[in-house]
Amino acid sequence: MRKLITGALIASACVWALPATAQGDRLERSQAEIAYEQAKGNFANDREARQQSATACAAKDYHACVISGDLYRKGEGGLQDYGLAAKAYDRACKGGNGEGCSSLAYLTSLGRGMDANQPEARRLYKLSCDLGDVSGCAGYGNMAYTGTGGAKNVPEGTRLLRNACSGGYSWACTRLEQLGAFDPSAPYSEQMLRLRER
């Protein structure tokens, strides 16, 4: 009896392990097969995007350099490569793209693809902010507020973080709250209240 039950359990386990099951005239794919096909398609799309953005970046499309850097940094469409991401962001930054400067500052601060260098990260965040990138202003404001990579300047850091929060950059709102620099009567408070409701 024990052998019969064991055999029945093994047989039922094998049925569940089959990649696809036939039910009548239709063939149903397993969740694993569906997920694999989707991942394969996403990877092919990301690989093509990586190639296209690298080609456009070489042709001085600085927004494409940022996209290329993002794909290398995240490992989408190929291997993750912080060094190549940093090169793409650097090219964008030198081309006057604030988002490229901000992304390069982030890698520089963490030491990804290079040695960590807080003063250089702070300089890049300031450059990004000067170029009008709200995330760069938030990064520079945070470094000024905390005194990372240079002199501490709480009023300037607070102002920059508040402006970034008012500009819709949610990380800046969260950071203001963490630093205890939240003023409920200030114009950026509406943005923070919306974040709390999420």
Polypeptide structure, described:
- There is one protein chain.
- By secondary structure, this protein is mostly helical.
- Helices cover 71% and strands 4% of the residues.
- It contains ten helices and two strands.
- A two-stranded antiparallel ribbon has the order 1-2.
- A hairpin with a 2-residue loop joins strand 1 (20-23) and strand 2 (26-29).
- The longest helix has 28 residues, at 31-58.
- The termini are far apart.
- The model is unreliable at 1-18 (pLDDT under 50).
Mean pLDDT: 84
Summarize the main sheet.
2 strands, antiparallel
Distance between the termini: 58 Å
Residue share in β-strands: under 5%
Give me the number of helical elements. 10
Q: Strand order, biggest sheet?
A: 1-2
Rg, rounded, reads 25 Å
- The oligomeric state is single chain
Number of strands: 2
Task: Please bin the fraction of helical residues.
Answer: over 70%
Q: Specify the overall morphology.
A: globular
Helix-strand pattern: HEEHHHHHHHHH
Residue windows where pLDDT falls under 50 for at least 5 positions: 1-18
Q: How does the helix and strand content classify structurally?
A: mainly alpha
